[in-house]
Design a protein that fits this description.
Distance between the termini: 68 Å
Helix content: 10-25%
Number of domains: 1
CATH topology: Immunoglobulin-like
Number of strands: 8
CATH architecture: Sandwich
Number of helices: 1
Order of helices and strands: HEEEEEEEE
Strand content: 35-45%
Structural class: alpha+beta
Shape: flat
CATH class: Mainly Beta
């Protein structure tokens, strides 16, 4: 019996939407909520040139003073907390798709020595410029 193309196309579209939803959930890499562990990881872009490494993290709604940056060995660790902005006891929350709470992103640096420049925040993105010292 031949397959109905409209039914097949609808099934494919639904499957693609489900895949997109799964990717969206992985985008923030949600963890189990444990008191000291981060709840989400911000997405990151890393661009390397011969002179520097440019790292951009997407952290909308996070004030710059709430972000900590540390270098430990060959890891750059960016962490902080995004406040919910509403008392969950005093409100009915219908949906939370934007991540809130503690976050941390560990970025393995390429071989070499780097000096971390002054971080900048604009349009919800934290940008770090690491100057290559080698």
């Amino acid at each position: 019996m031949p397959r109905d193309p409209t039914t097949w196309m609808w099934a494919q579209a639904c499957e693609m939407l489900e895949q997109a939803e799964r990717l969206h959930r992985r985008f923030f890499h949600l963890h189990r909520i444990v008191a000291s562990r981060p709840v989400w990881e911000p997405p990151v872009d890393i661009v390397e040139t011969k002179d520097h490494l440019k790292i951009t993290l997407v952290v909308p709604g996070v004030p710059p003073e709430a972000i900590d940056i540390a270098a430990v060995g060959d890891l750059l660790i960016v962490s902080g907390e995004k406040p919910l902005g509403v008392d969950p006891e005093a409100a009915v929350i219908h949906r939370l798709e934007i991540p809130y709470g503690r976050f941390e992103r560990q970025i393995r640096l390429p071989a070499g020595r780097f000096r971390i420049g002054e971080p900048s925040c604009a349009h919800g993105c934290l940008t770090l410029l690491l100057q290559r010292l080698d």
